[in-house]
Design goal:
With about 150 residues, the protein is an alpha+beta fold. It is about 35% helix and about 30% strand. Strand 3 and strand 4 form a beta hairpin. It starts with a strand and ends in a 14-residue tail after the last helix.
C-alpha cells in the first residue's frame, strides 16, 4: 500500500483539470496550478515517456466505458525525479454514455515497486543457483517430478 499524495477532478467536456497541492508536486507543476484549472495535456507532460502512451490509452478506455479506473505510471515530480504512482478514479457518464467528469486520487507506489523489483531479482538469483547446483531439482509445480 502507499499513501494518497494527490487528488484531481477533470471536467472532460471543457478539458479543465482541478488539482490539489499534492498532485501538483507529484507532477512537477507550479503550486499556482492549484489555483486554476489546467488542460489535461499540460499535466501529462510530466509522465515518463515510456508510460505516456499506455496512460493515454487507459484514460481513453475509462472514458469509453465509464466507471472505475486504475493505472500505474511514473511522473517527474517537483524535485525532478521520476516516481511510480497509481491513479485510482472514476469516470461519470451522462445518460447517453458521454463522459462528463473524471475524479480520483493518486497513490505513491514507488516503494512498493522497488520492493517488488528486489523480490523478483532475488527469486531469479535463487532460481539460477538451484538450477546450477548438481543433483538439485526445482519443480515448476507441486506435482512435477524432478
Amino acid at each position: 500500500a502507499g499513501a494518497i499524495v494527490g487528488t484531481w477532478f477533470w471536467d472532460i467536456a471543457n478539458d479543465r483539470v482541478t488539482v490539489d497541492d499534492g498532485l501538483a508536486h507529484a507532477f512537477g507543476l507550479d503550486l499556482a496550478a492549484t489555483q486554476r484549472e489546467l488542460p489535461l495535456k499540460q499535466i501529462l507532460r510530466s509522465v515518463h515517456p515510456d508510460d505516456h502512451d499506455g496512460l493515454v490509452e487507459a484514460i481513453n478506455g475509462a472514458m469509453a466505458s465509464g466507471g472505475r479506473y486504475a493505472h500505474q505510471y511514473r511522473t517527474r515530480n517537483a524535485d525532478g525525479e521520476y516516481h511510480w504512482l497509481e491513479a485510482i478514479g472514476r469516470v461519470d457518464l451522462n445518460p447517453t454514455g458521454q463522459p462528463l467528469g473524471f475524479h480520483g486520487v493518486l497513490i505513491d507506489i514507488d516503494e512498493r515497486r522497488q520492493v517488488e523489483a528486489e523480490r523478483n531479482q532475488a527469486q531469479a538469483l535463487l532460481r539460477s543457483f538451484v538450477e546450477a547446483a548438481p543433483g538439485w531439482c526445482m519443480p515448476r509445480t507441486a506435482r512435477a517430478a524432478c
